[in-house]
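Protein of interest.
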Amino acid sequence: MIKAIVTDIEGTTTSIAFVHDVLFPYARQRIAAFVAEHADAPKVRVQLDAVAQLAGRALTPTESGTLLVRWIDEDRKATPLKALQGMIWAHGYAEGTLKGHVYADVPACLRRWHAAGLRLYVYSSGSVAAQKLIFGHSTAGDLTPLFSGYFDTHIGGKREAASYRNILTELGQPGAHVLFLSDVTAELDAARTAGIGTCQLLRDAADQTVADHPQARDFSEVQLG
């Protein structure tokens, strides 16, 4: 029996186009100036130190900004980049410039699962702060009360089975009681290796590789039993 659902965001609850055509360009345009202006702020300094560690050398704020822009262009899953992007997006959401996209079927299904007693979680390469922003300022309103927790790359890479074992430890559930939703084959494979149930979302089936996992075109087709 499924007692918890862990969902990916990009391509699963939220359009890939929103992430790549709205969020990424918004952060790319602002990140160099943001770093230059806030380099001495403690929460930013921590992330810039992490950027320098990944780069393997000390960096000036200008060098950090240039590197971060390149990482955005490369779609690098670097934890400090995701944290800094989240800080920038927070301003956009707060002023109403950004609204988190969710597919039309998502809010009703999340509410139904929540009402049925299922515990809902998010696992995305975007920072936990960025995840909360998408669902807290979504086009369907504030969906964060429906979720029991959030996971990002601090728990591990999304294509590594160890990450899903870590999630199971955090949830205190055996894999048989947990269902992971994603559009990405490698993520689903890793979750299955950890013993978690899986379902591949085929939102843009024409552009996806169909995997050897149960499939659904949207959340209303997800089978829990």
Summary: The chain has eight helices and six strands.
